[in-house]
Each structure stands twice: as structure tokens, then as C-alpha cells.
Amino acid sequence: MDGMGVGVAPVRYSVETRWLHWSCAWLIGAQFVLGEAMHRVPRALHGPIVSVHLSLGVLLAALFVTRVAWRVTGGRAIRFAAGTGLAGRAAPLVHGGLYLMLGVEIALGYLARWSGGNPVEAFGAVIRSPFGPMSRETHHLLGSAHGWLAWAIIVLAGGHGAAALYHARVARDGVLRRMWA
Asked: Helix or strand or coil: residue 129?
């Protein structure tokens, strides 16, 4: 492990943890941009953007499941005592909130697609709905929830990033360095 001696906490998260974190972060950013772009581009570009969004969404879902499994099986490499004050209490809530919101967002993405009577097509594979037909109102509700939750994730992730920058530039406590490659 990076910087580890006997009985000493590691200086960095494991390579796997860092890779999963940054891969998910980049995919979430790309998914958000594509999701917003698909409603604002000329009709000729809509289909290709949706196709890329769906493929990256399936990839993100696989990485998310891997990341959750990695976290719950102890792959996180670093265990720190809970911080003090507001920041110490907020950090686990923000991390847990991001995990929960991303899991729900992924599920909503599948449901929104299927509720419109369309399969999820990713990298040439077709994932058909396990559910029967859904009403137009249900489709609209699922799509709207997917869109609004995407914005909530971006806002919370932006706050998470701002907190990391605070730790790097103001507190200078090495928090960001532990997750940086």
C-alpha cells in the first residue's frame, strides 16, 4: 500500500479505489453533459447522443456496482476516525448521499427508458424491460425524476469537489492528496 508502515494509516487510497472514484466521476460528468445536450441539439444529433448516453450509462452502472462491492468488502484501504465538527459529520453523509442518489439515478434511467417502451441499448447489446407497459404519465414522471436527480447529484458532487479543494488549498490537511492519482 502507498506510504504504509506497520500500524500506520496509508497516505493514499489504493490504486483500485482511486481508479473507481475518478472513473465514476468522469462518467457522471459526461452523462450529465450528454443528458442535457440531448434535449438541445438538432434532431439529427439526438439519436447518436442518446446512444452514447445509454452506453455510458450501462458502463457507469457496472462501475457503480463494482464500487459499492469494493467499498462494502473493505477495498477502501483507508479508515479514518470520524472528523470533528460539522465537516467531520457532513463528509460521511455527503458520501452516503452520493452513493444513494447515484444508485437511484441509474435505476431511474433504466425505468425511464423502459417506461417509454424502449429497450436500453448499450454497445450493441439490447436490455429489454422486465416490466409490462407503463402509462404515459409514469414515463413522464420517471423521466422528470431522472433529470431532476441528475441536477441534484451534480450540485452535491460540486460541493464535494469544493470541499476537496478547501482541504487542499486552505486546510492543507492532505485529504485531496489521498484520492489524487
From this structure: coil
What sign does the CA torsion over 49, 123, 146, 112 have? positive
Q: 62-101: per-residue pLDDT in tens?
A: 999 999 999 889 876 565 555 667 777 888 899 999 999 9
AA letter at 51: S
Strand partners, 29: none
Do the beta carbons of residue 57 and residue 109 sit within 8 Å? yes
pTM metric for this prediction: 0.89
Residue 128 half-sphere exposure toward CB, CA atoms < 13 A: 3
Give 79-121 as a 3 state SS string. Answer: CCCCCCHHHHHHHHHHHHHHHHHHHHHHHHHHHHHHHCCCCEE
Q: Which residue type sits at 39? A: H
Which residues on neighbouring strands pair with residue 134, listed in sequence order? none
pLDDT tens by residue, 15-29:
899 999 999 999 999
Tens-place pLDDT, residues 90-146 = 888 999 999 999 999 999 999 999 999 999 999 999 999 999 999 999 999 999 999
Beta bridge partners of residue 122, listed in sequence order: 125
